[in-house]
Amino acid sequence: MTIEITQVREPVSTAVVRRTAVASAPVGILADIRNVFVRELMPVLRNPASVLFAMVQPLVFLALFAPLLPETPTGSALQWFVPGIVSMTALMSASFTGANLSEEIVSGSFERLLVSPARRSALMIGKSLREMVPLVLQTLVIVVAVAPFAFDVHVIGIVSGILVLVPFSVGLGALSLALAVAAKDQAWVFWTVQQTAIFPLLLLAGVLLPLDGAPGWLQTAADLNPLRYIVDAERALFAGDYPMDTIASGVVGSMVVGVLGLWVGVRAMNRAS
């Protein structure tokens, strides 16, 4: 017996698939800044312990200096000392921002960023805005660490102090990035300039010692340091006081560093090759 198999073919659909090109909408600079900011923030979110490691130095300063602080007629000397440590932490953290960029330059990943569609100004601003996150986290860690030791916590003043420090941190971070771009793959140049500049700024701000009895030339040099006005404003705010002239001077000093730093940083990024 023979079985015949008959294959029945269904009619093939002759529908034509039409592809329509969709024009991509131009991405604004704010979207570029947001993308760069998120990219820079991801390592911090994936490894938050890195922020705590950066806290070793300020916590050591607190542990070694706090027992030596004298009692003051207005209360604990911690109320005077801690805002200076918060400002010092912001200074140190922001000034090290360019170190990460130096590693990217050496590894070649920075060149890939330069040829990406993102605007170069957005690269600089997004990287600089990342400094806001360590600033907030480190300030909270310091306040929590000193709160049990006769330190009066004024929430509004602390939040206001962080807001005053934000432009300073962003601007200094941009200056650090500009220094890394200028140094290119010569990392030793970045570290030499960073270390040479950071300690005069720190000491002339009266972070560790008051400058009231300093000689005239030292007072003049301190008056030219914007960080001094920021530290004075931080001390007033952390104490729950709101003298408008002191706070306004701190805000102006912070804004000057912020605007100048971003201007220099964007110019350096636009000229990077």
TrEMBL record:
Coiled coil: none annotated. Its main location: membrane. Residues 45-272 form the ABC transmembrane type-2 domain. The chain crosses the membrane at residues 49-68, 80-102, 132-151, 157-181, 188-209, 247-266. It is a multi-pass membrane protein. PROSITE patterns: ABC_TM2. Keywords: Antibiotic resistance, Cell membrane, Membrane, Transmembrane, Transmembrane helix, Transport. It is found in: Cell membrane; Membrane. InterPro entries: ABC2_TM, ABC2_TM_bact-type, ABC_2_transport, Nod_factor_ABC_transporter. Belongs to the ABC-2 integral membrane protein family. This is Transport permease protein. It comes from Nocardioides bizhenqiangii.
